[in-house]
Design brief:
The chain is elongated. Helix 2 packs across helix 11 and helix 15 runs antiparallel to helix 16. It is mostly helical. Helix content is 67%, strand content 4%. The longest helix has 34 residues.
C-alpha cells in the first residue's frame, strides 16, 4: 500500500506540471462547446417550424365582410399562432412570393362576398412557390384546402336548410333557420381548438430542446477532454513499467496509481469548465427549463460519475496507443464516433433502429441517459457508468501486464 501511495503522489506531481497545458486545451474546448451551443440555439430560433407563416391576401380590403373575416382569424382564432394574413395588391403579392418573403398568395375575386349572398361560391386561387415543401407552405396549403371544403359544405347546408324549411316547415321563417345554422357553424369552427390539446414532449427522454443539447454538449466535451492529457500519458516508458514490475509493483498497482492521478486531473478540469460554463450560461440568458431551479452543486455528483467513466475509457485507449500521435488520434476518433452515434449532435431517434441500439450500449449512450435522468429529477442508472469504468480499468491492467511480460 505504501508503494501505491508513493507512486500516486509522484503521478499527481507529473499531472500538476502539465496543468497549464491542459487548462488551455480545456478552455479551447469550452469555447468550441459554447460556439456550438450558440449555433444550435440560433438555428432553432430561425427554424421554419418555429416561425409564423405569412399569407398574402389579394382582394377587396375595403369590403367589411372580408376585413372582418381576416381580422377574426388574426385576433381570436387559434390560427393566429401559425399564420398571419397580409393584404397586398396582386403585383406586390407575386413579387413577395417569388422572393420567399411570404409562404403563399390567396386571391379573392372582387365579387366573392356578393356571390356568396346569391348562393354561389366563386373559386379562390391559392398560389405557392413551385417546388417548395416547407412546413409553412404545407400548413398554408392544408388550411386553404380545409377552408375551401368548409365553405362549400357550409353553403350547401345553409341553402339546403332554407329549402327544407320552405317545403316542410311553413310556420318557420327560413331566413331565421339560415342565420341560426350559420351561427352554429361559426361557433363550432372558432372553438375547434377544444377538440385537441398540444403537448410538447421534447426531443428525447422528455427533455426540452435546450435541455437535450445541454446534455449532448456536456457529454461531447467530456469525450474530448482526453486529448488534453496527451503530454502526460505519452511520456510513460515501457522500461519503467517493467522495472516497477520486477521490483514487485505489478500492473494492477501501476494502473491504479496512474488512473487515480489521471481521474483527479480530469475531474479538476471538468469542474473548472463546469463553473465557467454555468457562469456564461447565466450571463447569456439562455433558458434551460430543467436547470431553472437547480443549484450548480446538485450536478457535481453526476459530473463525477461521468468523468469516472470517460476517464477510464480514455486511460484504456492510451494503454492501447501509448504514443503521442496515435493516442491523440485514438481519443479523437473514439470521441467523434460516440458523440455522433449516441445522439450528442442529433437526437438518437434520427438514426435507424440498429444504430439506436448500438448507441445506447456505448459509454456515451449510458452517459446521455444518466445525465438526462438527472436533469429530469430522477436518480438515473449510474450502475452502467460504473460497470463501464470497472471494465476499462480491468482491460487496462490486462494490457499493461501483457506489455510488461512482452
Amino acid at each position: 500500500m505504501r508503494r501505491f501511495f508513493v507512486y500516486f503522489v509522484l503521478q499527481c506531481k507529473r499531472a500538476a506540471r502539465i496543468l497549464p497545458h491542459t487548462l488551455l486545451i480545456t478552455a479551447l474546448l469550452c469555447a468550441a462547446a459554447a460556439l456550438a451551443g450558440t449555433l444550435i440555439s440560433t438555428g432553432r430560433a430561425n427554424d421554419e417550424a418555429n416561425q409564423i407563416a405569412v399569407v398574402a391576401v389579394v382582394g377587396d380590403e375595403t369590403n367589411p365582410y372580408v376585413r372582418i373575416g381576416v381580422d377574426a382569424l388574426e385576433t381570436f382564432d387559434s390560427s393566429r399562432e401559425e399564420i398571419k394574413f397580409r393584404f397586398m395588391d396582386e403585383q406586390t403579392a407575386l413579387r413577395e412570393l417569388r422572393a420567399g418573403r411570404v409562404s403563399a398568395m390567396m386571391y379573392l375575386p372582387d365579387d366573392f362576398v356578393e356571390a356568396l349572398c346569391r348562393g354561389e361560391v366563386h373559386p379562390i386561387r391559392f398560389l405557392t412557390p413551385e417546388g417548395t415543401a416547407g412546413l409553412d407552405t404545407l400548413l398554408s396549403a392544408e388550411l386553404a384546402d380545409a377552408v375551401a371544403k368548409l365553405m362549400t359544405e357550409t353553403q350547401n347546408a345553409q341553402y339546403g336548410a332554407q329549402m327544407y324549411a320552405m317545403d316542410y316547415l311553413p310556420e318557420v321563417d327560413p331566413y331565421e333557420v339560415d342565420n341560426e345554422l350559420v351561427d352554429r357553424y361559426f361557433a363550432m369552427v372558432l372553438s375547434r381548438h377544444r377538440l385537441f390539446s398540444v403537448q410538447t414532449v421534447g426531443l428525447a427522454d422528455a427533455l426540452s430542446f435546450a435541455g437535450y443539447y445541454f446534455c449532448g454538449l456536456v457529454v461531447a466535451f467530456l469525450l474530448l477532454t482526453g486529448m488534453s492529457a496527451v503530454p502526460l500519458m505519452s511520456a510513460r516508458t515501457a522500461e519503467l513499467e517493467r522495472t516497477l514490475r520486477a521490483r514487485g509493483f505489478g500492473a494492477p498497482g501501476q494502473v491504479a496509481g496512474e488512473f487515480a492521478a489521471y481521474y483527479l486531473l480530469m475531474l479538476l478540469l471538468s469542474l473548472a469548465a463546469g463553473a465557467a460554463g454555468w457562469f456564461l450560461l447565466r450571463r447569456s440568458g439562455l433558458a434551460i427549463p430543467e436547470l431553472a431551479d437547480s443549484a450548480p452543486a446538485a450536478l457535481v455528483p453526476a459530473l463525477a460519475a461521468l468523468v469516472l467513466c470517460f476517464a477510464a475509457m480514455q486511460f484504456f485507449l492510451y494503454e492501447l496507443a501509448p504514443g503521442a500521435l496515435s493516442g491523440a488520434l485514438a481519443q479523437f476518433l473514439c470521441a467523434a464516433v460516440q458523440a455522433y452515434v449516441c445522439g450528442c449532435f442529433y437526437p438518437y431517434s434520427f438514426f435507424p433502429e440498429t444504430l439506436q441500439r448500438l448507441g445506447a450500449a456505448l459509454p456515451a449512450g449510458a452517459a446521455m441517459r444518466y445525465l438526462s435522468a438527472r436533469l429530469r429529477g430522477t436518480s438515473g442508472q449510474v450502475s452502467a457508468l460504473l460497470a463501464w469504468a470497472l471494465a476499462f480499468l480491468l482491460l487496462s491492467a490486462a494490457v499493461r501486464a501483457w506489455r510488461c511480460r512482452r
